[in-house]
Amino acid sequence: MCNKVVTVWLLFSVKEKIVTMSPAQHRIVIVDDHAIFRAGIKALLDSEPDIEVVGEAEDGLSALQAAINLKPDLILSDLSMPKTSGTEGIRQIRRRFPAIGIIVLTVHKAEEYIRAALAAGANGYVLKDDSEQELLTAIHQVSNKNFYLSPNICNSVVSGFLGERNKYASLPTWDSLTPREQQVLKLIAEGYRNKAIADYLSISPKTVEKHRGNLMRKLDLHDVSSLTIYAINNGIIDNS
């Protein structure tokens, strides 16, 4: 009888260890320049049995390095950070690792931030004043290959999209731009800065700035995010 009891206890113990040691379904990297905020998010996520925080980063450049080294399933990223912005980090990660889910976690509610993040390749957008449950829902939705937007920004995104769709429909066509303007627009939309564009095209930064000004005047678009959306809508760059 004693042997049977011991055997049952051992089987239960082994089974419990297997369950306890089973790998987390969602491996996550947190990207934010505030260490205390990262610690708070890590504490929240570590309490979830199917989530493991495998790394942290403080800007877009170190986020890319974390993606290369750690191969996470998902990245939570702020937008406003030093050195390399979150948007640029998202764009670079999306190019290198199309399968990684990317959720923006930020204070920014303005439409231009949302558009720029989605254009860069984010799969989700959550606000820092959303509930903890909202963040967890976003993580599970994006992990299942769905897009997720905070309910607090959905209306502005839909309204903005409808307005932009009508606006871009009436803009000059790609063919109305000179070949050089087309090259510059494509590079701007891919995230390159003036100096990098100048080096790539073997022209001066001043000439790049002139082409940029001509593009904005011709297309009636006045910031980089609008030029990027125009490029995506017209198939000039791929947002996949």
Classify the fold: give the CATH topology of the largest domain. Answer: Rossmann fold
**What is the CATH class of the largest domain?**
Alpha Beta
Pattern of helices and strands: HEHEHEHEHEHEHHHHH
- Helical proportion? 55-70%
Q: What is the number of helices?
A: 11
The CATH architecture of the largest domain comes to: 3-Layer(aba) Sandwich
Number of domains: 2
Strand content: 5-15%
Quickly give the structural class: alpha/beta
Number of strands: 6
Task: Give the oligomeric state.
Answer: single chain
Polypeptide structure, described:
- The chain has about 240 residues and is of the alpha/beta class.
- It has two domains: about 25-150, Response regulator (Rossmann fold); about 170-235, Orthogonal Bundle (Arc Repressor Mutant, subunit A).
- It is built from eleven helices and six strands.
- The protein has helices at about 1-20, 35-45, 60-70, 85-95, 110-120, 130-145, 150-170, 180-190, 195-200, 205-220, 225-235; strands spanning about 25-30, 50-55, 75, 100-105, 125, 150.
- Strand 5 (about 125), helix 6 and strand 6 (about 150) form a beta-alpha-beta unit.
- Helix 3 packs parallel to helix 4, helix 8 (about 180-190) packs across helix 10 and helix 8 (about 180-190) crosses helix 11.
- The longest helix has 20 residues, at about 1-20.
- The chain starts with a helix and ends in a 7-residue tail after the last helix.
- About 30% of the residues are buried.
- Mean pLDDT is about 80; it is low at about 1-20 and about 165-170.
